[in-house]
Design goal:
A 10-stranded mixed β-sheet has the order 15-14-25-24-23-16-22-21-17-18, sandwiched between helices. Strands 1-2-5-4-3-6 form a 6-stranded antiparallel beta barrel. A 6-stranded antiparallel barrel has the order 7-8-11-10-9-13. The chain folds into 4 domains: about 180 residues, no CATH class; about 100 residues, Probable tRNA pseudouridine synthase domain (Thrombin, subunit H, Beta Barrel), CATH 2.40.10.230; about 100 residues, Elongation Factor Tu (Ef-tu), domain 3 (Beta Barrel), CATH 2.40.30; about 290 residues, P-loop containing nucleotide triphosphate hydrolases (Rossmann fold). By secondary structure, the protein is of the alpha+beta class. α3 packs parallel to α8, α17 packs across α18 and α18 packs parallel to α20.
């Protein structure tokens, strides 16, 4: 391969061929006195020398010689040597003939080694094959092989005639060594470049294949390292002028293989690019000059966002799931958003996972790549501030972009945001968050209570009455703006007194003994007073474990009977039943009136096989009935637990909105997989602190999404400034 020929187009090479043929016919006329070449051995220089050299070097392999092409040239040379007899008889006279035959035989063996071992995984054999390829490219080229044939013909058939030696030698010297036309063409082209700089881009390789849709395979010439994202100008002989963006290297066969993604050229830029492409050899590719690239960059979405290009859509992608081949790993991590095209829509997907794949490419080379997996989020409706679902698959080989890190806006409705983006995820409906019940699930210390406290504050701001059943006393401190402990102390002490007094209350009717009935009536009155619309208070906080309430456990004997203290689960049922009775009086509604918050729900509403006392089974069932019946009266619940397996599934299954945070137990993951899908459920053990998978009726997204929850300080700053308590 020569630099002189590198920038010569095929029509120009055809012109060179015609001129060279005319030249060797002239040399034949001067040497032998006739225009047509001789059919005797003295015609060897013409048929198997000059003419074959011109055809091979200008049309067949103008840039490089593969081992397979070298074989054809070597075999043709051998046949020519054997077909024409030689007048020489002595060893000294036959030595050139034997040397030429030996050279051709050795080079044939070298080419055979390359063809046999070029795909070998054995390092020694592969190196042997590489050496064979290099030798074939230089010593097996038509220019070298046929120059040897001409030299042999001069020695064997023309050394006795001075005119023949002069003119046949001159033709060989001009065509094989000097290449005057190529040199002249190169000089003219360089002169043009002085006056028109940048219009003759360097050729980087030739087209090998066009993989529909939009993928180009290019065999690179030279050892320059071409980075992903470089823009190429493609003079494909089988298609119109094209532009491609380098995706990266894709293995090798007879050279390095580059892969590029073809893009559409804007109409207003096409004339200028066509003018540049005229100097590129047909079927070859060059790097587009930066100034030309900048001229139309803003008109092509891919080029405008080239810095965020991370891959292309891979096969097996479906409506809900995107698989993409990773081209550049630019801060890709679980939870980040990527964007690609579905039709003409730019649709967002959330990264779930990545894995390594291998693909067999041309000549059985193996290329390893990372394949990402992402779930559809939808396309963003800026007016409605929500994502809309798309019911179609992404375009195969479409570019995939990583959404950039942007500064968040102070969105009062946002409960969190997609990691490293400004895309907020909102509570679509506070009413549905309550009436259709919500669960916050996760291990200790991942931010469950902080999220619950944020949701409670949102409910209060929305005008919903909230009753927190909290055994941790955390809500009293965090929600002090809405709760005055001193104002509640008198009523709470009254309830405690009623409960304690029942320890000595023995009745013949067992159901009337103890303080359960009196306590239940007092709780009913307490909640009734709280729920009244004219009551400005929106928050009550009760700790079921602080109440000592007694139940008569047997028939009386000599005015005594055994007494049993109610468990927190049983007191939770009393409060839940009382709340249901109160909201019923206000009639049915689709708006939320009251929310019951079950903090440490595994202790307040346990699963049947996790109860501490036998009476807890009936109590939990009673609480579940209250929640199930309460929705049509505006009653719902917020359930918080770190032990999903230990919470009654009767209520948990009614939670239409779920915040799933980090969890490890298999029971919890199996339960959540029914809500979120196995892909998201499998990610729960690796979630970071204050990250959650959010899904349900109250979410602004139709599908499960992995979000970064609000920091408490940011939430209070944004929310309380706009919604003073």
């Amino acid at each position: 391969m020569t630099g002189k020929q590198k920038d010569v187009s095929q029509p120009v090479r055809l012109l060179y061929l015609v001129i060279y043929l005319a030249f060797i016919f002239l040399m034949n006329r001067l040497a032998f006195g006739q225009w047509l070449p001789l059919t005797t051995p003295k015609g060897l220089w013409f048929y198997s020398g000059a003419a074959a050299l011109i055809l091979g070097s200008l049309l067949v392999t103008p840039f490089f010689t593969s081992p397979a092409n070298a074989v054809s040239y070597l075999v043709a040379a051998l046949i020519a040597v054997f077909v024409f007899p030689t007048p020489s008889s002595g060893l000294e006279d036959t030595l050139p003939r034997q040397a030429l035959i030996a050279f051709c035989a050795i080079m044939l063996a070298v080419c055979a080694l390359n063809i046999l071992f070029k795909d070998s995984k054995n390092r020694l054999l592969y190196n042997v094959a590489e050496i064979g390829r290099l030798l074939a490219d230089h010593l097996g080229s038509p220019r070298f092989v046929y120059a040897l044939v001409i030299a042999y013909a001069l020695w064997e058939y023309h050394r006795a005639s001075a005119p023949e030696l002069l003119f046949v030698g001159l033709s060989g010297l001009v065509i094989a060594a000097q290449q005057p036309l190529e040199t002249l063409g190169n000089v003219i082209q360089r002169i043009r470049e002085v006056w028109r700089p940048g219009t003759a881009p360097a050729v980087v390789g030739c087209m090998v294949a066009h993989q529909t849709p939009g993928l180009l395979l290019i065999r690179q010439e030279g050892a320059e390292n071409i980075q992903p994202g470089v823009c190429l100008l493609i003079a494909d002989k089988h298609a119109p002028l094209g532009i491609g963006v380098v995706l990266g290297y894709f293995g090798r066969d007879e050279g390095l293989l580059l892969r590029a993604l073809e893009i559409e050229i804007p109409d207003k830029c096409r004339p200028r690019l066509l003018d540049i492409a005229r100097v590129i050899p047909e079927g070859y590719v060059s790097i587009l000059d930066r100034s030309e690239f900048d001229a139309f960059r803003d008109n092509v979405y891919l080029l405008k966002h080239l810095d965020s290009l991370i891959g292309i859509v891979a096969p097996d992608s479906a409506t809900e799931r995107l698989y993409f081949e990773v081209i550049q790993e630019k801060d890709i991590e679980q939870g980040r958003l990527v964007e690609t095209f579905v039709g003409d829509k730019r649709v967002l997907y959330q990264v779930l996972d990545g894995l390594t794949k291998e693909e067999i490419i041309q000549q059985k080379n193996t290329y390893g790549f990372a394949r990402g997996e992402a779930a559809q989020i939808g396309f963003w409706d800026d007016e409605k501030r929500k994502f809309n679902h798309v019911n179609w698959i992404p375009n195969l080989n479409a570019p995939v972009f990583l959404k950039c890190i942007e500064k968040r806006k102070g969105n009062i409705k946002a409960v969190g945001y997609f990691p490293a983006t400004s895309y907020d995820v909102e509570i679509k409906s506070i009413d549905e968050l309550v009436t259709h019940n919500t669960a916050i699930l996760g291990i200790l210390g991942v931010g469950k209570s902080m999220l619950a406290i944020e949701l409670v504050e949102r409910m209060i701001a929305h005008g919903i009455k909230v009753i927190c059943l909290d055994m941790t006393s955390q809500y009293t401190a965090e929600l002090s703006t809405f709760f005055d402990p001193s104002a509640e102390d008198t009523k709470l002490k009254e309830l405690q007194t009623i409960g304690l007094a029942g320890k000595t209350v023995v009745k013949k009717n067992v159901e009337e003994g103890g303080s359960k009935t009196a306590f239940s009536q007092a709780v009913l009155k307490y909640i009734e007073e709280f729920v009244k619309p004219e009551n400005p208070r929106k928050l009550k906080i009760l700790n079921p474990s602080q109440f000592e309430v007694w139940r008569q456990d047997s028939k009386p004997f000599q005015e005594t009977a055994s007494m049993a203290s109610l468990t927190p689960t049983e007191i939770t049922q009393i409060i839940s039943d009382a709340t249901l009775q109160v909201v019923r009086k206000y009639g049915m509604t689709d708006k939320a009136r009251v929310c019951l918050v079950y903090e440490e729900a595994h202790s307040l509403i346990p699963e049947w096989n996790s109860v501490a006392a036998e009476g807890d089974k009936a109590a939990t069932n009673g609480t579940a009935r209250a929640i199930l019946q309460g929705r049509k009266y505006g009653l719902g619940c917020l359930l918080i637990t770190q032990r999903t397996a230990n919470v009654t599934k009767t209520i948990l299954n009614q939670c239409n909105t779920v915040f799933a945070m980090r969890t490890f137990d298999d029971t919890g993951k199996e339960f959540l997989s029914n809500y979120l899908g196995s892909e998201y459920a499998s990610k729960l053990p690796s979630l970071k602190e204050r990250h959650a998978v959010f899904f349900g009726r109250a979410s602004s997204c139709e599908n499960p999404v992995l979000i970064r929850l609000n920091d408490q300080a940011d939430f209070l700053r944004v929310f309380r400034n706009q919604q003073p308590g």
